[in-house]
Amino acid sequence: MFSPFKAAAAYAIFCASYLVFALGRFPGIKIDRPGAAIIGATGMVALGILMPDEALHYIDFPTLVLLFSMMLIVASLHLAGFFDWIAHLVVTKLKPRHLLPTVIFTSGILSAFLVNDIVCLAMVPLVLAATRRMNLKPLPYLLAVATASNIGSVATITGNPQNILIGSYSGIPYVKFMCALGPVAIAGLFIDWAVLHYMRAKWGGAAVPAETLDPARAVKRKRLLKPALILAAVLAGFLLNVPPALAAATGAAVLLISRTHDPRTVYEEIDWGLLLFFIGLFIIVGGAEKAGLDAYLLDIARHWNLHRPEIFTVAVVLLSNLISNVPAVMLVKSWAAGFAHPETGWLFLAMASTLAGNLTITGSVANIIVIEQARKEEKIGFFDYLRVGLPVTLLTLLAGVIWLECIG
Questions:
Q1: Rounded to whole angstroms, how far apart are CA atoms 367 and 149?
Q2: pLDDT tens digits, one per residue of 41-95
Q3: Are 43 and 241 in contact (CB under 8 A)?
């Protein structure tokens, strides 16, 4: 029998944890999101809300394996100079007027297959170097990285952490997921280009001294070949409907066996905090579900008619900007599963939670990465971002809802 004390404790831990997820830190205490997730998970077990074996049952290991493996593959590409090579091509082959669409579509396409947070980490320094070289104001191009990486990542299961989670829970095959949401990503990238092109004209042009490209930053072609081939093989596995976690883990294992780079150097590129955040989040939500959270949320869904796609989309967008998209997906996954056609619910959840990330600076981790990395050279304020993020979010969500209703 689940006692009232344990139920109250489960909800208290859940609410305190989600408060940190929403604010970024616990008020008055230096506890960040990963720390809150681990503390909350520990509390769920320590207070007997979940037994240790139950806690392990709630952890979705395929999600963790896929996320870790993709991070490791992208880290190897980064260390081999893959992103530097792209920057070299951009700076040496393109004219300044071509830079904006190139940044948008490069960020979007890479984010469709690689985790978008990692793409942003790699792209921001390259965009700053390119804008210096071409004597351009960096603001629109930095916003292009953030918004396009979010939009492009909606296309596939491996595009972002919340899609990885949704792919694992829903069981939708990789190719079917891509066919459903790939067109939304393509349309969204063109919308992003139109909005940023218009805003760039209003912001003005050159603002920084021109800089010559440093030819000393040579791409390590021999080191790049192996991770590039392995990535191609992993993507082929996805398209052939090999389980994504297995395909990615196999590629990561081959990279580690081949020892192209010192493993410790590769491990330094992994976002361990994000992995810990996922582990803690699984256990926190599991404890709350055991206390009856699922039944409560399903009752809310019925009362507010949240199984209508338009209303569901608005609710997911609001929650994603309030508590961040990964916690939002974990919170409302029962709503998606409760659709008359659950696959439709999962696709709407992936689309809405991802595109919602473009609304504000805090809407996604990718946005924060861009803002923080560019801070020394270009400060991007809340309203600077909102002027682009608001129209991009509304237009891409509209396109997404129309498309999914047409194919549904």
A1: 9
A2: 999 999 999 999 999 999 999 999 999 999 999 888 888 888 777 767 766 677 8
A3: no
Q: Give how far the C-alpha of residue 372 lies from the chain's centroid of Cα atoms, to the nearest Å.
A: 16
Name residue 32's beta-bridge partners: 25
Residue 87 lies in a domain: no
Domain that holds residue 28: 1-57+274-290
Rounded to whole angstroms, the Cα distance separating 210 from 286 reads: 54
Please, where are the H alpha helices in 80-173? 82-93, 96-113, 116-134, 139-153, 161-170
User: Considering the domain boundaries, does residue 229 fall inside one?
Assistant: no
Which residues neighbour 221 within 8 Å (Cβ) at sequence distance 6 or greater? Answer: none
Report yes or no on 126 lying in a domain: no
124 and 130 Cβ atoms separated by less than 8 Å: no
| Residue 32 backbone phi and psi in degrees, to 5 | -95, -175
SS3 (DSSP) at 322: helix
Domain tally, the chain: 1
| Residue keyed to tokens 């004209």 | 201
pTM of the model: 0.88
**Percent residues over pLDDT 70 in the chain:** 93
Structure tokens that stand for 181 in this block: 């949401």
Q: Is residue 8 part of a domain?
A: yes
